[in-house]
Amino acid sequence: MTALSFFYIISAALFILGLKGLSHPKWxxxxxxxxxxxxxxxxxxxxxxHEIVTYKWIxxxxxxxxxxxxxxxxRIPMTAVPxxxxxxxxxxALAATLVGISEYFRHGSALxxxxxxxxxxxxxxxxxxxxxxxxxAAKLQxxxxxxxxxxxxxxxxxxxxxxLIVALLVSLVAAPSAAPLFYGMVALALLFGCLMxxxxxxxxxxxxxxxxxxxAGLADAAMGFVxxxxxxxxxxxxxxxxxxxxSLLMCRAMNRSAANVLFGAFxxxxxGAGGVAxxxxxxxxxxxxxEMAVLLESVRSIIVVPGYGMAVAQAxxxxxxxxxxxxxxxxxxxxxxxxxxxxMPGHMNVxxxxxxxxxxxxxxxxxxxxxFAGADLALVIGANDVTNPAARTDRASPLYGMPILEVDRARxxxxxxxxxxxxxAGVDNDLYYNPKCMMLFGxxxxxxxxxxAALKS
Amino acid sequence: xxxxLEIGLYIFMLAGFLGYHVITRVPPLLHTPLMSATNAxxxxxLVGSLVVAGADYGPLSxxxxxxxxxxxxxxxxxxxxxxxxxxxxxxxxxxxx
Lengths: 457, 97
Fold this sequence. Notes:
The structure holds 2 protein chains of 2 kinds.
Chain A: H1 3-21, H2 25-46, H3 56-75, H4 81-107, H5 113-140, H6 154-174, H7 179-197, H8 205-227, H9 230-253, H10 258-264, H11 271-277, E1 285-286, H12 289-297, E2 301-306, H13 308-312, H14 316-328, E3 332-337, H15 347-354, E4 362-364, H16 365-368, E5 377-381, H17 390-393, E6 412-417, E7 437-441, H18 444-456
Parallel strand pairs in A: 1-7, 2-3, 2-5, 3-4, 5-6, 6-7
Helix pairs in contact in A: 1-2, 1-9, 4-5, 4-8, 5-6, 5-7, 5-8, 6-7, 8-9, 12-18, 14-18
Chain B: H1 3-24, H2 31-42, H3 45-54, H4 59-89
Helix pairs in contact in B: 2-4, 3-4
């Protein structure tokens, strides 16, 4: 055993301790410090690898990479964290793909079956994750339309493409020397990554990002098998499991199967049914900001229900200030966070933490639902489908069975909303026709500002 | 089965089970930092890329290795920095500025 393997073992232990630290915000930063130390040890140890003959390209790569990484890490706004995460999956996958290509180019026909299979998996998973994550990042950054892009025979052609890729992989394992087949397989994997993500809508991105996280981990683990580097097998496996668990959690929160997210192109199909039935449901009551300010004077407990619309309107800072003002007046303010409230798992918590909301005020769906019945007011800001009581009661609704925040149990409800436009699922929200519910129409940020002015006067 | 592969597969499986237990204890509150942390950690592919970029495997391998080193470093540096930036913001009610 060399000194390097000893370094790697300690690094692996530090990585696991680092992730374990994330079980509580109190220990999380300390844990990450351990993981950083582990990374530093592994990298410095590797620089003494006996095969390294020149440091020219290593230094260039590390300097450029650190520059880009530091800019991204320090400058990117919290609303853009999902894009950055997707971009980082794509870079990790690209690195794995390139190392795989380099290994194939170097050994070619001399490769054994096991190693060829590992390289094949590395470049296929790496390739599709690279382009797939780029597409996801482009959709999140709105460089591409967020709506699903669909065409006839999409699923059939995608599945045939995947089958072709697998067939090429199998034939290469049998006969590794067929270089054109190898490069063809890489190209098809890159193409498949694009085609896989374009039919998925922006609001489904939490699932997609988590799934691509898992693929990036698997590509990394495959690279570990190619280079027989055990620490990469460990981190790849951890990353793969983490992404997979998160994508399952997100699917459960949307009451959909992974297959439905990947092949369903949700949100394009159901748009027709909801709008027509709307008129029969009753009337919608509007409220003005100064009326709402009067109402807030008499309220003792509030549950704020934020959705991604709040982040789009950049209203989270105003909401947090309003909540802290009410808190000073003795009002109990809690926040109800639905698992899919942001564009990636846990995103809403980060946005609210940035707005200086203490994390002990943030409640998960399972915890908060018990509190709604005792709340004087539920304040819904930019959330829609996750508050629709039809998910509980209406078997005909496409949302039926989805776990929701039980806003309708609160004593009164105010919804901040731009217009009556339905949410992502294209379903009308029954909540708005509830006699306890009032709507404050307009841009969330402006509404909050007007509310502030009225409260202070 | 080739003994090295066998050990690798055992490591892969055990790390998967370990991951399951560690990750399920992470509260949804910290799921975004979790994802950027696993991103940063999986930047360990840097160690593989370093060898490809620095060894004498021919100019094509060196170039591919150089790009791979750059990509992995972006993930490591960017991932750890943004994770720390996020974790710094999580404060309890009595620790607020």
